[in-house]
Specification:
single chain; 278 residues; mainly alpha
Length: 278
């Protein structure tokens, strides 16, 4: 067997492992872990809407809430490991492509790489929290302000922050539009769902995806504003972004709707963990 044949055989075996049951299990565990985080963030945002302003409606607040429950440490480690699985699944998509006709395209691989990096960071933060049980890194709001301030200090930092904010706005719009158009149908095993289940998944997918996209877009707007005004304190993390929905003319009810949408997205993530094609 020549070197070319050996290399081809090695690639085939690696691709088979990437598409095998281990990677599938990692993907489904990661989607379920994402669902837990969004459920908790949405629940914390609902508490804020109804007057409880003590908790942070972000990932740190969600982890703190888990840590206070019975077997909280075990749950935190399980959540972190699940998110590691999500990152590894996205890495396999970078290397071997994802499901779908254009799954091996450069665009899909680039998106997978971005998602891999994002979930690797989230997994690291969750596992760090599980190991230390404190929030020494600060809230998402403080982290956003600190990162913006550091970025503004470098050459062309104002342009970089503005570009990043615009990218986040665009990502939010992309997430919301795809949810409303039900693009997730392409990735679901619809044949395994009954009509009622499919309707429930559509409710959670459309409403949850729209709410998630809206939160991303508004956070991006604040980043652009911070760049234009050269004021890092105007950048907002997830918690402050959610609280701004309560400061609109309709009062806390807009925050209630967005928070409920985030809860629905958490439920939708569980549906994806069950029926998504990996």
């Amino acid at each position: 067997m020549n070197t070319s044949a050996l290399a081809q055989t090695g690639r085939f075996r690696a691709r088979r492992v990437a598409r095998g049951s281990v990677t599938e299990g990692a993907a489904r565990a990661g989607l379920a872990a994402r669902g837990v985080i969004y459920l908790l963030v949405g629940a914390l945002a609902l508490q804020i809407a109804f007057g409880d302003t003590k908790e942070q409606a972000d990932r740190g607040g969600a982890l703190a809430a888990i840590s206070q429950k019975p077997f909280g440490a075990v749950l935190l480690w399980a959540l972190g490991i699940g998110l590691v699985g999500m990152a590894l699944w996205r890495l396999s998509e970078v290397c071997f492509g994802s499901v779908g006709q254009d799954g091996r395209s450069a665009r899909k691989r680039l998106l997978a790489a971005v998602r891999c990096a994002f979930y690797a960071f989230v997994a690291y933060s969750v596992l760090s929290f599980a190991a230390s049980r404190d929030q020494s890194g600060g809230s998402s709001d403080q982290q956003s302000r600190d990162a913006t301030a550091r970025a503004l200090e470098i050459p062309a930092g104002q342009w970089l922050v503005a570009a990043a904010g615009i990218a986040v706005v665009a990502a939010g719009g992309w997430i919301g539009v795809r949810a409303v158009l039900r693009k997730y149908h392409d990735k679901l095993r619809l044949g395994q769902m009954g009509p009622r289940t499919r309707r429930l998944v559509d409710v959670t997918g459309v409403a949850g995806g729209a709410a998630r996209g809206l939160v991303f877009a508004v956070a991006g707007v604040f980043a652009v504003r911070a760049a234009i005004d050269y004021e890092p304190d105007k950048a907002k993390g997830l918690d402050d972004t959610l609280r701004t929905f309560a400061d609109t003319p309709v009062g806390p009810w807009l925050l209630v709707c967005v928070a409920a949408g985030l809860v629905l997205f958490g439920v939708f993530s569980f549906a994806m963990a069950r029926w998504r094609r990996v």
